């Protein structure tokens, strides 16, 4: 499965924003969970990632937890969110 | 007052030679191996060094930790203040790690140590405060505990208002009993001393380059003496 340009951009953003040592873009599987399992991100990372989405793409996430959970499930869902809601 | 013994210690600083002392780590970048990578990424260099030293001294992770630092992570705090001034939103991760008990907190999560922890800043009397607190815990029935004293250079903007300091951290295991190669910590009153003690001074003293250390503000001095059998 090929990685889209947006997915690649998001991988790089995640690594840079969350200061993930020793993680390369290739290590992030677009279909694997980002949080707890898979990449193993935590709740502070979720806040940090929300901030990065706001800064870079102008996306403000609603505070309702269930939809955020779906958007942040994996890289593919994150890319779909950015695709549909980006302001810049 | 309860007797206080120095039971063991570890130190880190890239700003002096180890002179063959294996308890002193002089690497520029401490490994931070005691902390899993996903937690380690948020620690600064001192934080990595401190977590490794605590793990080395307390593999059973059942000791109280007292962590003193005069300035804490001044760089991180100042960066956030600059950002706020520009109207930038705060980074949650940076904010979380800028607080004074950040390193001790990460150590507690990584090691599973659920004992009490205390973060201390004392305007230059950090060492005196650590020893006073340690006496309190020992009098309360603890048999031994871990003391950490760490500092890094004050951000350039404030450098003119504080004594120059270099990155260094020292971790000591102290207790009420003279176990192993313990030395007795002897306290004296009104010693001669001119400037506030910094972690590098403590390292110098532990390595035997100074006989006494003194805290001018608290008017106390300390020296290590062999345990009489």
From TrEMBL, chain A:
It holds the Pfam family PP-binding. Gene3D superfamilies: ACP-like. Residues 4-86 form the Carrier domain. Coiled coil: none annotated. This is Acyl carrier protein. It comes from Salinicola acroporae.
Automatic annotation (TrEMBL), chain B:
InterPro entries: Ketoacyl_synth_N. Residues 9-223 form the Beta-ketoacyl synthase-like N-terminal domain. It comes from the Bacteria. It holds the Pfam family Ketoacyl-synt_2. This is Beta-ketoacyl synthase-like N-terminal domain-containing protein. It comes from Salinicola acroporae.
């Amino acid at each position: 499965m090929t990685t889209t340009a947006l997915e690649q951009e998001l991988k790089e953003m995640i690594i840079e924003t969350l200061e993930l040592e020793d993680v390369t873009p290739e290590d992030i599987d677009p279909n694997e969970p980002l949080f707890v399992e898979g990449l193993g991100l935590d709740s502070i990372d979720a806040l940090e990632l929300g901030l990065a989405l706001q800064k870079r793409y102008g996306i403000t996430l609603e505070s309702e937890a269930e939809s955020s959970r779906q958007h942040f499930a994996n890289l593919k869902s994150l890319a779909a969110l950015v695709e549909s809601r980006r302001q810049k | 007052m309860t007797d206080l013994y120095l039971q063991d210690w570890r130190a880190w600083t890239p700003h002096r030679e180890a002179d063959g002392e294996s308890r002193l780590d002089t690497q520029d970048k401490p490994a931070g191996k005691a902390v899993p990578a996903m937690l380690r990424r948020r620690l600064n260099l001192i934080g990595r060094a401190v977590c490794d030293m605590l793990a080395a001294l307390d593999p059973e992770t059942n000791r109280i930790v007292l962590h003193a630092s005069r300035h804490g992570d001044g760089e991180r705090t100042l960066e956030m203040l600059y950002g706020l001034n520009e109207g930038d939103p705060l980074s949650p991760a940076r904010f979380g790690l800028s607080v004074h008990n950040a390193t001790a907190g990460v150590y507690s999560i990584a090691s599973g140590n659920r004992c009490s922890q205390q973060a201390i800043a004392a305007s230059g009397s950090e060492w005196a405060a650590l020893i006073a607190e340690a006496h309190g815990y020992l009098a309360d029935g603890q048999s031994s505990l871990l003391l950490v004293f760490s500092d890094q250079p004050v951000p350039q903007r404030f450098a003119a208002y504080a004594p120059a300091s270099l990155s260094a951290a020292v971790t000591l295991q102290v207790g009420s009993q003279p176990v192993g190669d313990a030395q007795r910590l002897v306290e004296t009153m009104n010693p001669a001393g001119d400037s506030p003690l910094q972690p590098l001074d403590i390292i110098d003293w532990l390595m035997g380059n100074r006989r006494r250390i003194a805290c001018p503000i608290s008017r106390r001095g300390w020296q290590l003496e062999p345990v009489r059998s």
